[in-house]
Design brief:
Strand order of the largest sheet: 3-2-1-4-5-6-7
Number of domains: 1
Structural class: alpha/beta
Strand content: 15-25%
CATH architecture: 3-Layer(aba) Sandwich
Order of helices and strands: EHEHEHEHEHEHHHE
CATH topology: Rossmann fold
CATH class: Alpha Beta
Distance between the termini: 40 Å
Shape: globular
Number of strands: 7
CATH superfamily: NAD(P)-binding Rossmann-like Domain
């Protein structure tokens, strides 16, 4: 049985990715930050459909906690699946904050950098010894780092996600001798709890975003989760070092 680690899977895109990957017969270790209840909901959903999942806490912004997390992953692999390794890593966990360029503080910049770029970099480095040869990694970036999704107020956030896109290509290059594929997906506007439940707080933005999207609606978590699950499956076996925008044609 193949095993996946999906970070930030208590809601939104991560929750969908975990469920969609589990539907393909893969065991899932999913992580959560503050939302333990959401993570347990994800586990329950997977188990209800006959899958197996374990939820572990992870603070992606604190790299000093990664060795302890690595130990917890090793224990979960042995106890639940009698494995020493895993096969799939989805670096999804993140935070979102906007600030105009002139209002961006060093504190905000550093917080975004720790979670969105440093976190995936060193978490992947920590987990790499346990990642089986022939495995797959997907990094969740954003079309805020692409011309199609560029919006005033996201200079720091978009820069970190752009860095993650470049990192994806370097990972693909350096991990290829082990047959490990690395890709990224760049969601557009997606109806999640992201950025402090922005869609719930500002429902008026939904029709405007739908009007700017070629396929006529805003994204749903499963639109992205299904793409991630496909990339890490056998169907994606010949795809590596790619950044795939999954936005329904935002600003096309």
């Amino acid at each position: 049985m193949r095993i996946a680690i999906v970070t930030g899977a208590s809601s939104g895109i991560g929750q969908s990715a975990a469920i969609q990957i589990a539907k393909r017969g893969v065991g899932v270790i999913l992580t959560y930050g503050r939302n333990q209840a959401g993570a347990l909901d994800t586990v329950a959903h997977i188990e209800k459909e006959g899958g197996s999942a374990v939820a572990l806490p992870l603070d992606l912004g604190r790299s000093e906690t990664f060795p302890a997390f690595l130990g917890a992953v090793g224990a979960a692999l042995r106890d639940t699946w009698q494995r020493d390794t895993f096969d799939i890593l989805v670096n999804n966990a993140g935070i979102g904050e906007m600030a105009m360029f002139e209002d961006t503080t060093e504190e905000l910049f550093d917080r975004l950098m720790r979670v969105l770029l440093k976190g995936p970099y060193f978490l992947t480095q920590s987990l790499l010894p346990l990642l089986a040869d022939g495995g797959a990694i997907v990094n969740v970036t954003s079309n805020a780092a692409l011309h199609s999704g560029m919006t005033a107020g996201y200079s720091a956030y978009g820069s970190m996600k752009g860095g993650l896109t470049v990192l994806t290509q370097y990972m693909a290059k350096e991990f290829s001798p082990r047959g490990i594929r690395v890709n990224s997906v760049a969601p557009g506007a997606t109806r999640t709890r992201f950025a402090d439940d922005a869609f719930e707080k500002y429902p008026e933005v939904v029709p405007e975003l739908a009007a700017r999207t070629a396929l006529g609606r805003v994204g749903e978590p499963d639109d992205i989760g299904m793409m991630i699950a496909t990339l890490v499956s056998e169907e994606g076996r010949w795809v590596t070092a790619q950044n795939i925008e999954v936005s329904g044609g935002l600003n096309l």
